[in-house]
Amino acid sequence: MSFIDHEPHGVYFLIDNKSFYSSVECTMRGLNPLKVPLVVLSEQKNTNGGLILATSPEAKRLFHLKANVSRQRDLPQDPRLVVVPPRMNLYIKRNLQINQIFTRFVAEEDLLPYSIDESILDLTHSWHLFGDSPKAVARRIQETVRAELGLYTTVGIGDTPVQAKIALDLYAKHNADFIAEIHYETVPAMIWTIPNLTDVWSIGKRTAKRLARIGIHNMYDLAHANPYRIKKEFGVMGLQLYAIAWGVDRSDLHTQFKPKEASIGNSQVLPRDYRSRQEITLVIREIAEQVASRLRHHHKQAGCLVLSIGFSYAAAEQDGHGGFHKSLTIPPTNDNQELTRQAVYLFEQLWDGQAVRNVALYTSKLATDSGLQLNLFQQPTRQLKDAQINRVVDNIRQRFGFTKLIYGSSLLKGGTAVQRANLVGGHNGGNAYD
Amino acid sequence: MTNDAKVICQRMDLLFKRLARTKYWLQVVNDHYDHSYNVFFNSQRKYERLKSVPLHTIATYDLSYLEKVLGDLRTHTQLTIEFEGFSGQLWPDSQRLIERVKNHYE
């Protein structure tokens, strides 16, 4: 009997879409996602010429493009290549449709969407209803998605979620059927043989470097290191790394993760270097209003405000700092004016004329918006009116769209709110106009 | 003119810049998955990448309606219209084959 018998056993699938955005765009054009060299290129003003969001497998093969997020300047000028703009809302819709299909194979509580194109499925209790083996079920899910949406999916199968994840990331995409399996028994053959630590989920460049410092250079080393030593070096996260090397994962998909401290905020990269105080404060004001509006939408008040400013490359080099970052405790509020005032105050305090390229504003210490704390130093009627105005503006924007009611200042040089209003995650949301 | 045709013309006019050595054409795709017709505006400068911008999705999944929309479109523009995903199907009105050139990617 080995330790494995005491560890949780299940049948977990990790399913992702092959080059999701580009595959969706291919199917919309009646093309086969695997055969067409297609690239999804976001050409917002702040992307410095264009950002590649996704490349189809064929484009990767023909032009040796690396997976995701490179620049337009790395893209060859080749007449075979098809370039399309992103439509984030469409991808969200497709993701929901795919998860809809998954719920035919698992109960809803056994399905955990992990990202825009990845989901974790716990088929422990339901796989035998759909096939003779987990692999046959995976095949069936793939065929269903392909038939109904035209998309190709890759499936990693494992006894634990982390085994499935590693099977998906490292093996499934190289197999002809896009399916790979890892079980406790095959962990030595499939996980310990991984030469690059950074290929493994949760290990990045910095963690790999730190592991190398204590003599761990590959997964075999990690699995055979002294767990107490790793814990001393890395804390509990070190033990998690050690567990991954053995394919052990005790996470329970049914218990929802609750962040200790929720926060609401927004950030943006500016389309060019902003140098004048007026332009920068304009953007800060726009972001503060957006954040305040989101706070009200979630019925929250924020007790802490964090402003992060990133300098432009040139300014950062000159200054020696990449930017600044400061938090401020404020009386709980979700009022436009109050948040704007505090954010601008923070900025004025710390800014010393550097060119700015990055602005982020976050609020935390969120409390339920149960009432208005009146301020002794202001007319109460004025305060009530302000709160009312905020609510009316929110309602109008919700009904008719954000751009239908904006401040005149947003039309000044440097304002970004109007231009960003129809973006999703910083990229074109819909059919440009829809 | 149908509403769909109007929307397509409006959006197309913004993109049709008549640059030198550049090919422009429209693409109409039969979307089996969503049961709709997707319209794209394609352009390609010689030796450069093909750019394909979505113009509109025609939700009415009916060939005779599509024939009408395209009739309206043809009064507005003379750009070539390329068809995708209609193999073997005929226009209900004129009884001509819709997709006369077969695409090799399907």
From TrEMBL, chain A:
* Alphabetized Pfam families for the sequence: IMS, IMS_C
What PROSITE patterns does the database record attribute to this sequence?
UMUC
Would the keyword rRNA-binding turn up in this protein's UniProt record?
no
In terms of CDD domains, this protein maps to: PolY_Pol_V_umuC
| Residues annotated as transmembrane | none
* Matching Gene3D superfamilies: 3.30.70.270, 3.40.1170.60, 5' to 3' exonuclease, C-terminal subdomain (1.10.150.20), DNA polymerase, Y-family, little finger domain (3.30.1490.100)
Q: Is tRNA-binding tagged as a keyword? A: no
Recorded hits in InterPro entries, A to Z, give: DNA/RNA_pol_sf, DNA_pol_Y-fam_lit_finger_sf, DNA_pol_Y-fam_little_finger, DNA_polymerase-Y, Rev_trsase/Diguanyl_cyclase, UmuC
Supply the SUPFAM superfamilies for this chain.
DNA/RNA polymerases (SSF56672), Lesion bypass DNA polymerase (Y-family), little finger domain (SSF100879)
The residues covered by the UmuC domain are 12-204
Could you list this entry's UniProt keywords, alphabetically sorted: DNA replication, DNA-directed DNA polymerase, Mutator protein, Nucleotidyltransferase, Transferase
Q: Which family does it belong to?
A: Belongs to the DNA polymerase type-Y family.
Which PANTHER family does the record cross-reference, listed alphabetically?
A: DNA REPAIR POLYMERASE UMUC / TRANSFERASE FAMILY MEMBER (PTHR11076), DNA REPAIR PROTEIN HOMOLOG YOBH (PTHR11076:SF35)
Name assigned to this protein: Y-family DNA polymerase
State the species of origin.
Lactiplantibacillus plajomi
UniProtKB/TrEMBL annotation, chain B:
Q: What is the lineage of its organism?
A: Bacteria, Bacillati, Bacillota, Bacilli, Lactobacillales
The protein in question is named Acetyl-CoA carboxylase
Q: Could you tell me the superkingdom of the organism this chain comes from?
A: Bacteria
